[in-house]
Amino acid sequence: MSSTSQAMLNQGLFEDQDMPSQMGFYTSPPNWTFPPLASENLSTMVTKHQDVTSLLGEFEAASVERSSNNIWPWGEVNQYVGSKRCLGDDQLGVAAMKMKKVKARRKVREPRFCFKTLSDVDVLDDGYKWRKYGQKVVKNTLHPRSYYRCTQDNCRVKKRVERLAEDPRMVITTYEGRHVHSPSHDMEGSEGSSHLNNFFW
DNA sequence: CGCCTTTGACCAGCGC
DNA sequence: GCGCTGGTCAAAGGCG
């Protein structure tokens, strides 16, 4: 069975260090069941979703301040997702304002991309191979957060996976960094690769 | 046997 | 300065 087939809805928050304007809220179209990881695809996503321009504006405002300080609101993004502010216009604005107050927690600026997915399984099959390196019960959440690292050599991409406390059906996945290689699932050349390719792009 | 998950310990950032 | 919290490490065990 394919875990990806469980995914039905994606909504989330993204940001990209190379493109300061690329930070905002997105809702995936019906035919998108998984978010892109490369910056160019993020750009495409924004273009396709002008209907969320007002929401995006809130985050761009926060992004400007962040850029001027050359600081990434590292922890705030996670808190934003964990507290389920991915949904709701008013809450989104509040979250954006809150981000302005956050202090620098980390100087390493890896592009991050987080989203929520309605799924029965915790770990969605995104075509890459991951190794779990930690699990932590975070405050105010019922479900533990899992930490994964890409198994590919020289690829430092990490991802965090957790479930929403109020709606355990929703899986929050946060990617950090960019893959320096192609997805590894198609190495077998089996039928599985075809459906996965169709799933992603 | 190699790769993976589990899990407790450790560390660093942040708020008070 | 201290305690809390999130993120990472690494040893141990499991599984194919």
State the end-to-end distance.
20 Å
Strand percent estimate: 15-25%
Fraction of helical residues: 25-40%
Shape category: globular
Classification by helices and strands? alpha+beta
How many alpha or pi helices? Answer: 5
Mean pLDDT: 53
Pfam families: WRKY (PF03106)
Subcellular location: Nucleus
InterPro entries: WRKY_dom, WRKY_dom_sf, WRKY_plant
Main location: nucleus
Task: Outline the structure in words.
It is a single chain. The chain has a seven-stranded antiparallel sheet, sandwiched between helices. Helix 2 packs parallel to helix 4. Helices cover 29% and strands 22% of the residues. It has 201 residues and is an alpha+beta fold.
Name some characteristics of this structure:
201 residues; alpha+beta; seven-stranded antiparallel sheet; 5 helices; 7 strands; 29% helix; 22% strand; disordered N terminus; disordered C terminus; DNA-binding; WRKY_dom_sf; WRKY_plant
Summed up, what is this model?
By secondary structure, the protein is an alpha+beta fold.
